[in-house]
Amino acid sequence: MMQTMQIARIHLAPFRSHVLNRFQPLVLISLILVLVLTIASFGELSQRSDEAFSDPGSVQRPIRAVVFPPSSADGVAPDPRERAEPADVTPEAGLTDEAGLTDGAGLTGATGLTYVGRKVCGECHRENFAAHAHHGHASTFFEVADTDLPQIFAGETFDGGPQYGIYSYQRDAEGNLIAKLDGPEPPASLMLQYALGSGFNAQTFLTLQATPGGETTAIEHRVSCYAGDRLGLTVGHEEKTPDSAAERFGSPLQGEVLERCVYCHTTTATIRQGHIADLTPNVDCEKCHGPGSEHVRSARLSPKPAPYSVGMETWDRESELQLCGDCHRLPRSISKLELRDYPDTLVRFQPVGMLRSKCYLKSEQSLRCTTCHSPHVSHHGPDEMSRQIKNCIQCHDQTQSSHVICPVSPQTDCIDCHMPAIDQKQGIKFHDHWIRVRD
């Protein structure tokens, strides 16, 4: 048998050589054509993505913190985010597979899916993409050196109060912002590493440091930046006292508290030995929707991809509350004493107040976070109050006999009376989401 096969191969060899010699030029030409067409298609796709898709938060622009403008002539301060340069995330590279679809080669989430970056999401969801660029969520986390904050602080001083001393600020040769304190004990200076907050209320600073054991601790700086480029005491630091020389710069954070702090201001981040790895700054699309690689693959295969993340048919108000409350806080995040006494500081934790509201409990699943707040569109200004009151009147309409009607002001002042803005110091106010008839 083996001998027969060898003889066959010998006799077929001239024929195979003849066939290959005859068709080899055709095969080579075909391969070259395929290669050229592939390159042309890729180039056309890249050009279409670059030209037809204009990113208002382009990575070609430097990430900048909010520059707080002065008050206007009528005394009303404009929304500081109107002049913000929105942050962006670079779309992950190396996404193509044999089908020409994305197969996320960026950061991998817990599900095994990968993050594709907000610009890829914007290929289809352009309206939400453009609106989100001006939302507070789009600018929640910055490296200070990449912002204009060093220019704002350079040359300024601030009295931190007894046991703290006078802070003085300057820029180093690399453009970093440095805080200095006079005193006999080190450290005499500390770099302001990260800025947290959109700037609509404030931006607070964080500095990470690695411990000898490889852990990470942080200092939340005692001084924050407020509207009008004003330096002020960080909210919550008023009654604090330092237990060490390092704590003269601010309050120490570590462990779960530090991780939650960074988690809620970023889309992806891993704290490692004094720095942040795998950083996707700000609260972008995939923070709420999850890693988008499989959704992108499905969308590019079909004009009608399956519902994704918060678009699922099973999504209800409880799912939404859990999602928003993951960072805006739920009852499990606070003490039983706080739940009972409901101090003014709890107005920052909107889901906690909402869960106590009869409007929520008796709305038959209709009242949810997005009834009043869009996760994509930032609503601030004189028209916002009237828009929110319309939401109230939908359930408290005096033309409907079955509705509960306010006997004092059935069509105006709903928010001011039942959800007033509570002062949190330094001019910051949050509306109380425990909707009720107040004393």
TrEMBL record:
Annotated Cytochrome c-552/4 domain residues: 256-290
Sequence segments annotated as region (Disordered): 69-102
Keyword Transmembrane helix: no
Protein name: Doubled CXXCH motif (Paired_CXXCH_1)
One Pfam family, short name: Cytochrome_C554
PANTHER family: C-TYPE POLYHEME CYTOCHROME OMCC, DISSIMILATORY SULFITE REDUCTASE SIRA
Keywords: Signal
Organism annotation: Stieleria magnilauensis
